[in-house]
Design goal:
Number of domains: 1
Helix content: over 70%
Order of helices and strands: HHHHHHHHHHHHHHHHHHHH
Distance between the termini: 32 Å
CATH architecture: Up-down Bundle
Strand content: under 5%
Largest sheet: none
């Protein structure tokens, strides 16, 4: 394959040439004081919004719960179609850019630039920051949930918790954890990274819109975009942290550390939530202070090692060959149904309409909102670690590899849980457990008590490292946005603020209304950013198309080439 090169540094070849790309997007930052190096117009409003949300949840819990529930019901029903079709558009855009030869060969950076991280560390950081915690919670929870209820069961085509319900269960599991999630992350990361490393624009959310709006984003509208991204990031990470904390506490309870960890209904007690957050967010803040190249990279590699060890255990003593067969069948079913399922929007007509609509709102629409809320954080983080890769390598690496990892986890771990239920060995103990406890319940049935305790301890450690990785990555990304794209400065006091704020958001919402309260808040917070993501999709298409035209007419396409051309005039 021919390597990308910048066009010759000479005058345009025809009268039909276009202008060089925008290579400067000034963002005003403070030059001294507490906010030195930060955009006050972004940082202060972001802190105020998050602080008000925390105080509202703590001091007015009843009002907060009622208002959030009402707003959630309205938003999720009104914008369900918007979320479904938006995510489909994001996936389509990514694959088009990768598959078109000329576009796929363009590099996220200067021509010939080498990636900062090797592929293993790159994949490890992608997986750890993007989806690791959710995998531990949902590797059993998601297949078991669809094993009990999915659109085919609702329509009466198969019986719940039967052998025939397994294949449709995995169709929808793969739908939620496959290309849709990673395509959303990839699009946001590409839109930001392409202009940041190719055109030397700030590594921040507003830069992803620069191909459309140019210098207008230096002012008020750019500030609003970044504020929306910061709030969405905190709320999206809060959902992941909430699931992780619940499962972390459930694991500690399984290890016999005391009845005080759980309330009578099986949820985490307030004391357990507080202590877990103190430990986890404290550790993540320390890791964030060490930066991407040290703490986060080291923890991500550790996560991958522990994950593979746990996966190997399930492959040997769990479903094994059955899991591999389920993986193959699941992949085939997923790929053949991907387009129709990605574009299906259920309506309330017909005998099963109400149930189908509710199922889609509870699952698919929730997931699309979750991925979108998570996208500014994960997208920025992916952009930060992907400099030097071609668009083709980036898209396939970010979408295909982590998706396949998710599928392997779901079939090996979730498949083992389903096999234990179908064989009667579990006697309903797994499917009847809470979603945060289902992985530990599977281990309890699968292994001898002593071995189960050791492996459960491994899972608790893995949960802790995933939680720390997600939280510290999110804190660093929030500071990067607030710092107008500056990813080098430590800004220790701001790292500490966002670490504490994240802990309070998760803790207050868990104590207020459990995971449901965090989910609701996240869905509401994701809506404004969903419109930003949609515009990003259009912006990256324009950026790539115009760069291809520039290469055709001999116009520089990178900041470096533009500077060389200007110097040679």
């Amino acid at each position: 394959m021919r390597a990308e090169t910048d066009p010759p540094i000479e005058p345009p070849l025809t009268d039909h040439s276009i202008e060089p790309p925008l290579i400067e997007l000034p963002i005003k930052t403070a030059s001294r004081g507490f906010y030195d190096g930060f955009s006050r117009e972004v940082t202060i409003p972001s802190k105020i919004i998050v602080s008000l949300l925390i105080m509202w949840a703590i001091f007015f819990p009843v009002s907060a719960s009622e208002t959030l529930t009402a707003a959630n019901s309205t938003i999720i029903s009104t914008f369900s179609g918007w979320y479904v079709y938006l995510v489909a558009f994001l996936m389509f855009t990514c694959f088009i850019l990768a598959l078109v030869p000329q576009a796929g060969s363009l590099r996220i950076g200067n021509p010939g630039e080498k990636p900062e991280f090797g592929r293993f560390s790159w994949f490890a950081m992608l997986f750890g920051a993007g989806i690791g915690i959710g995998m531990l919670t949902y590797s059993t929870g998601e297949p078991l949930a669809h094993f009990s209820n999915n659109p085919d069961i609702i329509r009466g085509l198969v019986d719940a918790q039967s052998a025939e319900a397994v294949r449709p269960a995995y169709i929808y599991t793969f739908l939620h954890w496959g290309f849709a999630a990673w395509g959303t992350y990839a699009l946001v990361g590409l839109a930001i990274g392409y202009v940041a490393y190719r055109r030397n624009l700030p590594l921040t959310i507003r830069s992803g819109l620069a191909p459309l709006f140019g210098l207008h984003l230096s002012g008020r509208w750019g500030h609003i975009v970044d504020i929306v991204a910061v709030v969405a990031t905190i709320l999206g990470v809060a959902v992941t942290m909430g699931f992780g904390v619940e499962q972390f506490v459930a694991g500690l309870a399984r290890l016999g550390l005391g009845d005080w960890l759980l309330d009578p209904d099986g949820s985490s007690s307030a004391m357990a939530v507080v202590l877990a957050l103190v430990v986890l967010v404290g550790a993540s803040t320390l890791s964030a202070l060490s930066g991407v190249g040290r703490g986060i990279k080291w923890l991500s590699n550790l996560n991958m090692g522990l994950s593979f060890a746990l996966l190997a255990l399930f492959a040997v003593v769990g479903s094994g060959l059955g899991g591999l067969r389920l993986l193959g069948v699941g992949l085939w079913d997923y790929l053949r149904t991907l387009i129709p399922n990605s574009l299906t929007l259920f309506d309330k007509g017909g005998p099963f309409g109400e149930a189908l609509v509710q199922w889609q709102l509870d699952w698919s629409v929730f997931y699309w909102a979750w991925w979108i809320a998570f996208a500014p954080f994960v997208g920025m983080f992916i952009a930060r670690i992907s400099r030097g890769r071609t668009i083709r390598e980036y898209v396939f690496g970010v979408i295909l590899v982590p998706s396949l990892m998710c599928f392997v986890w779901m079939t090996m771990v979730g498949g083992t849980a389903i096999d234990l239920e179908l064989s009667g060995a579990a006697q309903g103990s797994i499917v009847g457990a809470g979603i945060s406890d289902q992985l530990f319940a599977t281990l309890a049935v699968l292994l001898d008590p002593a071995v189960a305790a050791v492996v459960s301890g491994l899972v608790v450690i893995l949960l802790m490292t995933y939680l720390i990785t997600s939280a510290d990555s999110a804190i660093l990304i929030v500071n990067t946005i607030n710092g107008a794209g500056d990813s080098e400065g430590e800004h220790r006091h701001h790292i500490l603020f966002w670490g504490v704020a994240l802990a309070f958001v998760v803790g207050s919402m868990l104590i207020l209304g459990g995971i449901a309260a965090i989910r609701i808040t996240m869905i509401i917070g994701a809506l404004p950013f969903s419109f930003v993501v949609a515009v990003m999709g259009v912006a990256i298409l324009k950026a790539v198309v115009y760069d291809l035209r520039r290469k055709h007419y001999g116009v520089p396409t990178t900041a470096q080439a533009c500077a060389e051309y200007a110097a040679g005039k």
